Amino acid sequence: MGVTSMKRRPFFALASGLLGALALPTGLVGAAEDSWTTVRAMLFADRAIADGSARMRLEAPARALDAATVPVEIALLPEASSAADPVRRLWLVIDNNPAPVAATFHLYPEAGVGRIETRVRVNAYTPVHAVAETASGTLFAVDRFVKAAGGCSAPALKDKELAMARLGRMKFELLDPFEPGRVLRAKLKIGHPNYTGMQIDQVTRNWIPPDYVTKVDIRLDGKPLLFVEGDISLSEDPTFVFDFLAAKPGTLTAVVEDSSGRRFEERWQIGPTS
What is the pTM of this model? Predict the structure, then answer.
């Protein structure tokens, strides 16, 4: 079963299962274990998942300052894969969130993306898992425990009128000096409220319908660098910091789609003066 279909079809069943897990009288640790068991089964069935601590690093704060914008970094170590069996997908899972799969990252070996940072919402104290899959289907994972609560229902940082005025605007930054053949670090920020469906309009006091980024397709001269499947657990104004390999100057393109059927596209020149 594909990750996309998993997120769409059993969404409410999964949320219900997680809420049930949180209500167990076995305490926080037992509830967290039960949540991961539920999410793991729905994502990967009975496939084996190895300990990935020697192949991948996951960074997240032990206690978040803001539950609606929790920074997370996934970094693949040199031991993560080989040329014959590269990592093709990464799942970022927030076990106790109503929509646990915050993002699925599709990787392309020739693009050189080995590190990704983003910001997520955390709805309750929870383990956060990063799961990698290689081309041969091997799975390995690492996890961290994050103390935060209320991130999915936290009011938007911007009022709705301002958020919609900025909808789809993107900002791209090259964080390293351009050098052909070198792995560079870049940042893409997308103007989008990423409403979860669990927030209340502070003016009308009505529920705000879910409206969130579902796809981000980043390419360099038409060749894929990084493809992201998103959901409500990504923060407002979804932001991605990532490494990529630029063999020569070129045009970087970002195409974004959201759950309301909108499509946004922007492009930037990557070169010595970018």
Answer: 0.87
* 136-169 pLDDT per residue, tens: 999 999 999 999 999 999 988 777 788 888 999 9
Convert the pLDDT of each residue in 205-241 to its tens digit: 889 999 999 999 999 999 999 999 999 999 999 999 9
Q: State the SS3 of the chain.
A: CCHHHHHHCCHHHHHHHHHHHHCCCCHHHHHHHHHHHHHHHHHHCCCCEEECCCCEEEECCCECCCCCCEEEEEEECHHHCCCCCCEEEEEEEECCCCCCEEEEEEECHHHCCCEEEEEECCCCCEEEEEEEEECCCCEEEEEEEEECCCCCCCCCCCCHHHHHHCCCCEEEEECCCCCCCEEEEEEEEECCCCECCCCECCCCCCECCCECEEEEEEEECCEEEEEEEECCCECCCCEEEEEEEECCCEEEEEEEEECCCCEEEEEEEECCCC
Q: Give all domains of the chain, ordered by start, each with its CATH number.
A: 3-270 (2.60.40.2470)
* Average pLDDT of the segment spanning 19-42: 64
Taking each helix axis from N to C end, the angle separating 27-44 and 11-22, rounded to the nearest 10 degrees, works out to: 160
